[in-house]
Design goal:
This protein is 32% helix and 21% strand.
């Protein structure tokens, strides 16, 4: 692809982030959720997956989905620096995804967790995978986190016993900032970070190409 000089000036400088090794999580249903890092080639199907949730007011899906869509679009179109996205799939179908970015060598910025397949703690598992990425692979010391729904507050702030840091401005706006520090992560890790590596080639192959969900429990009657 030929990039003109003006476009080169618009694009942020990106550093090469360490890869997140794929893993498989066995859900309460017995289903296997494969978690792998998305690439920009996955951008269109991720946007297709998130778009229908923008009109769902329940549990603040509209706020979260609109922001995730914007964040993923900015990443896909090279308008945000050092962003990543991890995706959990069941038989290739997207069940949940998380995203964030690095601020510097020691600090991470958690953006969002959004789940289509509810009731199996897919979102909680994916949030844990995101924290695993920051502390185990990016080798950071803390992650800045906000919640935009009561469910998120229970899952992140309470479950991880996050440290309140209201004096710090999160990139998502005025919602009070909390922080997961490395000691808090290590304390929560045995309870909350699950999954096995390596993933068998056969199972990993199911996540080679993400599939947008054909049904959404949040949207009765939806059919793709």
């Amino acid at each position: 692809m030929i990039i003109d000089e003006l476009e080169k000036r618009l694009r942020p400088v990106e550093k090469k982030l360490p890869p997140y090794p794929p893993k498989v999580i066995t859900l309460a249903s017995g289903e296997k959720m494969v978690v792998r890092q998305a690439t920009r080639d996955d951008g269109p199907v991720l946007l297709e997956t998130v778009r229908p949730l923008i009109d769902v007011e329940r549990d603040f899906y509209d706020v979260v989905a609109a922001r995730v869509y914007s964040e993923l679009l900015g990443w896909y179109r090279y308008r945000v620096a050092d962003e990543y996205c991890l995706v959990g799939t069941i038989d290739g179908v997207i069940a949940s995804l998380v995203n964030g970015r690095t601020v510097n060598e020691t600090t991470g910025m958690s953006y969002h967790t959004i789940t289509i397949k509810r009731g199996l703690r897919c979102g909680a598992q994916m949030f844990a995978a995101k924290m695993e990425y920051h502390f185990e692979y990016l080798k950071q010391k803390e992650v800045l986190i906000v919640a935009e729904s009561p469910i998120g507050y229970k899952r992140w702030m309470i479950e991880y016993q996050l440290e309140a840091r209201p004096q710090v401005q999160h990139e998502l706006g005025g919602v009070p900032t909390h922080v997961l520090t490395e000691p808090l992560y290590q304390a929560a890790k045995p309870r909350l970070v699950t999954g096995q590596r390596p993933v068998s080639p056969q199972l990993l192959a199911t996540a080679d190409e993400f599939i947008a969900p054909s049904e959404y429990p949040q949207i009765p009657g939806f059919k793709r």
